[in-house]
Amino acid sequence: MDRNRELVGVAAICRWESGEHVVASVATHSEMRGKGIGAEVMRQTLAVAQRNSIPILSLGVMSGNHSAIALYKKSGWQELFKFTFAERG
């Protein structure tokens, strides 16, 4: 939240049926991007995982989302795989 108590960034840690945890729904308000909010959201997300003894976190990001990829790398994430997906119309 910013000084005006408005939500400006979010992330969620979800637990899959397999027991693995994934970071999902990472977002920063479009007017607030470039102000370090995404980095703080990721820092807080990792802190929550640590407090809850979650040893491994995964996340997925579209390959064209370069700003998100840069944020994740700056936050210490490593790229493990590239994959494609298919849509059914």
Describe the structure.
By secondary structure, the chain is an alpha+beta fold. It contains two helices and three strands. The chain has helices spanning 37-51, 66-74; strands spanning 9-15, 21-28, 57-59. It has a three-stranded mixed beta sheet, covered by helices on one side. It is globular.
Question: What's the layout of helices and strands?
Answer:
Elements: E1 9-15, E2 21-28, H1 37-51, E3 57-59, H2 66-74
Walk across the major sheet and give the strand order.
1-2-3
Percentage beta strand = 15-25%
Portion in helices: 25-40%
Radius of gyration: 14 Å
Instruction: Please give the number of β-strands.
Output: 3
Helix/strand class: alpha+beta
Order of helix and strand elements from N to C terminus: EEHEH
Spans with pLDDT under 50 lasting ≥5 residues? Answer: none
The shape is globular
Quick check: average pLDDT? 90
Largest sheet: 3 strands, mixed
Please work out how many helical segments DSSP would assign.
2
Terminal Cα span: 38 Å
In summary, what is this structure?
The chain is of the alpha+beta class and 89 residues long. Helix content is 27%, strand content 20%.
